[in-house]
Write a structure and sequence with these properties.
Layout (H helix, E strand, L loop, with lengths): L5 H22 L7 H17 L14 H7 L3 E2 L9 H5 L4 E3 L6 E3 L5 H10 L5 E2 L1
Helix pairs in contact: 1-2
Length: about 130
């Protein structure tokens, strides 16, 4: 397997960030600013990431921050898949409970990632999205 140096990693992260932005714009039916601006944005993000901290990134602390978007992703139970078997509750009662109205599992507020992962592992229909 090939190892990437810091500059290559930063550039790769920038390219991925630009691609994600383009996909997001396409999903909502809008066009991104343009190739020149996208390249400039990718260069700025890559430079900040190469420095090793988000504080130098022009998008740190904004809704355009790629690191914040990844961190904000919360686990949930896909109610359309859940069959209410309760296996997740039996394995990780500190993280899951059955909703009395729907009869489906839901993740408790403040549940640890480890406990959610245990419950997800035993779900027979892969309804726990991490």
């Amino acid at each position: 397997m090939m190892k990437l140096n810091t500059t290559a990693k930063a550039l790769l992260i920038g390219v991925v960030a630009v691609a994600l932005v383009a996909v997001a714009y396409a999903a909502v039916g809008r066009s991104p600013a343009g190739p020149a601006q996208a390249t400039e944005i990718a260069a700025e993000v890559a430079t900040a990431n190469a420095a090793g901290d988000c504080a130098n990134c022009p998008y740190a602390g904004t809704d355009k921050c790629p690191a914040a978007a990844a961190a904000a992703k919360k686990p949930y139970v896909d109610a359309s898949k859940c069959i209410g078997c309760g296996k997740c509750v039996r394995v990780a009662p500190e993280a899951f409970e059955i909703d009395k109205k729907t009869g489906k599992a839901k993740i408790k507020v403040g549940a640890s990632k480890a406990a959610v992962a245990r419950g997800a592992k035993v779900c027979p229909v892969d309804a726990v999205i991490q």
